[in-house]
Each structure stands twice: as structure tokens, then as C-alpha cells.
Amino acid sequence: MSSRGTVAVVRVEDLHKRYQADGPEAVAGIDFEVREGEIFGLLGPNGAGKTTTIGTITTRVRPTSGRVLVDGVDVGEDPVSAKLRIASVPQLSNLDRALTALENLTFHASYFGAPRRERRERARELLGRFGLGGRENDHVNNYSGGMAQRLMIARALMHQPRLLILDEPTTGLDPQSRLFLWDTMVDLRERGTTLILTTHDMIEADRLCDRIAIIDGGKIIALDTPTRLRRLLPAEHGVEVTVAANADPSPAFTAVSGTERTEARPAGDGRWRVRLYGEDDGRNGGLPEQALSAAQSGGLELIELKRLEGSLEDVFVHLTGRELRGADGARVSGRWS
Amino acid sequence: MSAVGVTGSPRVAQATRNIQIRAFAALCGRDLWVTVRHELGSFLAQALLQPIFLLFVFGRVLPEIGAARPGYGTQLLPGVMALTLVLTALQNTALPLVIEFSFTKEIEDRLLAPLPVAAVALQKILIAALRGVLAGLLILPLAALILPGGIHIHGPDWAVLIPIFFFGSLAAGAMGLVLGTAVPPNRISVAFAVVLTPLIFTGCTFYPWISLHQLRWFQVFTLINPLTYVSEGLRAALTNLPHLAGGWIALGLTVALVVFGTLGTRLFIRRAVD
Is residue B214 classed as helix, strand or coil in its secondary structure? Predict the structure, then answer.
């Protein structure tokens, strides 16, 4: 992801938020930067502080302390200038129900001072791009969930924001709509829009995000690329080798250096799957290279060789625990009584 | 757009101001468009059905069956106009706010428009006031049709009528702002009943304030109700009946506008920004 810029579009500095003077901190000291042209994911259990963090960026939540800069503009000091640079797509529809789809777009653009002709042209172009052409004069009440979601993104793009914030954009959508939105987000990034995405969907986060911050208890507990986050899982590193063999082939792999533990299981069809767990220290060409030569010298036919990585979901559960969360984000017992 | 945000220079300040003014005008544009293109029928029904029946029953039926004096309709007209003006402005601020803040969340798109949050509240009041003025004015042709022998007004005294319409509708819009932001959505129907019923019946709509001197405590009580000042103001503008002194009317409307305007804006900001 080195092609992404290094300019910070969003900078969150020592953010704290307490909704009641004597209540708990919803956000307890968060710092992060979102770089130009990246898709930045905010992951966390319910009540972790994601929505509050997003709210401070969109001017809807006033921080108790700390500050948020969008494109160099202090959101607290100059919310109007900040709002010119931001667009937000909420989880639930907030479309203007008195208006048609086309009017939703054109009036939104008019709030941002776009000339009449330009807003009509842009609205029609976006409606076409989002597969809503032909339905532009429908009232949005008649729109399905997926259509409403697409229309909200189209509306957000009407004023050409530097930063687009999407709050759980694919929750409750059918697979087609979800795939479409994923493509759209990647496309937007290619066009230079910076995106912040909150989600519970690990596949979505893994697939789309350049970097992910995992939030829990109002704090960032991990922030990195999806690949590096997966490496946070201590026990899951290593390689998996599938070979053609009639008996347990693991003795062939004893020479592989850096292996802490070996597991071998028959995979059916005269195949065995051998997992070599351990830190890849890069010696002798690294684990995959060594496993390959071990298989060859053992006279085993190689079927598949892959690096073992935990899923992002494993990382998430590893970092935030298995317990269900109450309304305030506190852990509650998930056991049946 | 990129120049905005580098605060300090007067040119930038001017550009920011222009952006805000344009956004304010665009929000008004949206509301006017919706009023005319999408909601004209429902707006007129909501605003005018009640006054039509008031004029018909109190101005026509009661005098004809001998339950009220023949001239009662004329006496009633300024009151019905005031009631329509105030209720329309109040409801057109309060009801959309309740719905947009809690159910449809439509307000969010406005709150993210490039203008201060308080300006969004002001814009809501302004459009509701405009709707109130429109509904109030429509009472005249309606009364001409409904009242026996048409309408008999003195004047009108435009120098009184225009400021009463202007400040009365804004004050009512501000009251709607308080109601729409202070009341939780699950209580709104009871809040409307509890607020609107006394407002309607203690606002000197059906009786001139002066004639209450025999019921002194009630006469004093009606002075709490902002509608009293609108009713009495329109009575001054449209009839030669005795009415509350002009200075009191001006004071009453000013106090209502300032108190409800300030309170409503505060409540609105509290709802809009956590």
C-alpha cells in the first residue's frame, strides 16, 4: 500500500469523550491518523467507542478533550469548514422522505453551493453509476434497503468530499449489494477519496481496508495493516504443506529449523496435511522454502504449500475477548443460566 | 472550497459567510419546494380545516340558531386568524423536528450542511413562520365565503397587521422549536394535547381580552399565553373593537420571541451535538 499518500486527511489527537460528567468515558484517549487515499477501518465490539469517534469527526459529538483535524481544519473550532470536506453515510437511512431520489441528490448539492446545472448533471451521472437510473423520480420511501444505501452514498458524493465516512455500510444487505458496495469503495479510493469505514464484518475489513484500528473500551488496542494484525496471533504462524503420502510424512520435516510444533493429519485421497508452527526467522530461505526442500528430499509429491495466518476474526476475538457486550460496552456473561 | 478553513484573512471570512448564506438559502429552497410540490394538499388541510369549522360553527351556525349574537363572526375573525397563524407555525416547527430527530433522522443531512447548527434551527422557524403567515392570510377569503354576509373589517391597519404577522409567526415557530426539541418522541402526542389545548382556549381567540374584566383572574392568566398578543394585535389591526394596548402587545410578543427563541435554540443544539 505504498502508493497511498502520507498526508493525513484526518488526525485525531488524544480524544476523550464523557457523555455525563460522572459517567464512564466512551472514548478514553484515542490517537490516529487517516492518510490521504486510504481505506481506514474502525473495528470494535458494540459500545467500544467507534460511533463516538466517528461523531467527533463529523461535528456531531463535541469531545470532552483532545481534538480532531480534518484536512488541517480543527473540527471543533471551525465546524463549517470541516463540513465542506466531509460526507457521512449512516447505518440507517436518513434520506429525505419528502423528496424523490433525484431531488435528494440535487438539494444536497445545493446546500453545498453547487450551481443548478452542475448538480443535475452530477446527480444523473451518480444515479447511473449506482444502478439507480430509471428510478430517479421515485420517492425514496419506495426504495429497498440496498437501493437506499446506494442512494445515500451517491448523495454523499454530490459535494465531492475529501473524506467519506461509512458506518457499517453493508450490514443487512444482500450479497449482490454488498459486493457492489465493496467495488464502489475500492473505486472511490482509486479516484482519490479517503474513506473511513466502521464494520463488524471481518471479511469486509480484511478485503477493503489498508489499515485497521481495533477499538475496545474507548481505546485503540491495535492499529496496523490487516496482514500485520493477523500476525498478532501468536500460535497460528507457520506453513501448511499438503503432500501425496501413504503414511504420516512428518519425519521428513524434522530438519526444518524454527519449527516449534508439527501436526500431521490425513487429508483423504492418499494425501497428508502437515502443519509446521513456528516463527519464521528467515533462516535457510524461511519456512516455506525449507518445507519445500524437505518435501523434495523426502521424495514426497507436493500438492499445496501455504502460509498459515489466523483470520482477522481470530485476531479480533484474541484482542477483545469472547464475552458478549452490554449497552455500555461492558462485558456481560454469555452463559445460559 | 480549498481556500476556506485557512482562518484569519478577511477574504476567507467573507467566502465562509457566503457559503453559509448559500446553504441557508438552499435549505429554505428545499422546504419551499416541498411545500409547493409535494405537500401542498396536506399542508392546507392541516392548517385550514380547523379554522374552517371554527368559522362555520361559531360564526354561522351559532348566530343562525340564536346561540350567539349576529355580529359574533366579525368579533371571532381576528381570533381565528391568530389561532391559525400560531398553530400552523408552531406545529410546522415542532412536528417535523420530532420526526426528523428520532424516526427518519432526516435532520442529519441538514446538520452536515456547511452552516452553524443554530442556523439550521433558525431556518426551521423561518419556514414554519412563513407557512403560518400563508395560512393566516388564507383565513380572509375563507371567512368571506363562510361568514353570513361576508367579512366586515375596519381597515386593515397594515402598520399593525404586518408586524403582528411577522413577529407573531416567528414567536410561534420558536415555541414549536422548544416543543419539538424538549419532548421525547414517545411523549409527543400527550405533550401536544397538554400544550395545545390550553394554548387554544386561553389565547383570547373566542373573546376579546378587554371583555374579561369581570373575570379578572382569568384575564391576568391569559397574559401568559403568547397567542393572546397575536389575537389582540389582529383585533387592533382588523376591527374597531377595544383591545389590549399596543405597548403591551409589542412587549408580549418580544418576550415570547426572545425567551422561546433562546431556549429553543439551546435545546436544538443540545439535541444536534452530543
Answer: helix
Q: Determine the Cα–Cα distance for residues B130 and B134; give it in Å rounded to an integer.
A: 6
Pairwise CA distance, residues A177 & A188, whole Å: 16
User: Which 8-state DSSP code applies to residue A139?
Assistant: B
Residue B75 belongs to a domain: yes
Is residue B53 a part of any domain in this protein? yes
**A78:B27 CB<8 A:** no
CB contact under 8 A, B114 and A80: yes
| Distance linking the first and last C-alpha atoms of chain A | 48
| Measured distance between the N- and C-terminal CA atoms of chain B, rounded to whole angstroms | 27
Residues in CB range of B155: below 8 A, 6 or more apart: B161, B237, B238
Q: E strands along chain A, which residues?
A: 8-18, 25-35, 39-43, 65-70, 73-74, 86-89, 163-167, 194-199, 211-216, 219-224, 238-244, 261-268, 271-277, 301-308, 324-325, 331-332
Considering only CB atoms, which residues of chain A are within 8 Å of chain B?
A: 19, 55, 58-62, 71-73, 77-88, 90, 92-99, 103, 107-108, 110-113, 155
Sign of the dihedral through C-alpha A228, A229, A232, A233: negative
Q: Predicted ipTM?
A: 0.86
Q: What is the pLDDT of residue B7?
A: 53
B32 interfacial to chain A (CB closer than 8 Å)? no
Q: Answer whether A61 sits within 8 Å of B5, measured CB to CB.
A: no
Determine, yes or no, domain membership for B14. Answer: no
Closest among A309, A93, A308, A312 to A201, alpha carbons compared? A312
C-alpha to C-alpha distance for B180 and B187, rounded to whole angstroms: 11
A133-184 residue pLDDT tens: 888 888 998 888 888 989 999 999 999 899 999 998 888 788 888 888 899 8
Q: Quote the number of domains for chain B.
A: 1
* Architecture of the domain delimited by A234-308: 2-Layer Sandwich (3.30)
Measured CA to CA, the distance from residue B256 to residue B227 in angstroms comes to: 10
Domain holding B105, by residue range, is 40-272
Among residues 67-86 of chain B, which lie with CB inside 8 Å of chain A?
none
SS3 B95: helix
Tens of pLDDT along A102-127? 999 999 999 999 999 999 999 999 99
Distance from the Cα of B24 to chain A's closest Cα (Å) equals: 7
Chain A CB contacts of B8 under 8 Å are none
* Every domain of chain A and the residues it spans: 8-95+143-230, 234-308
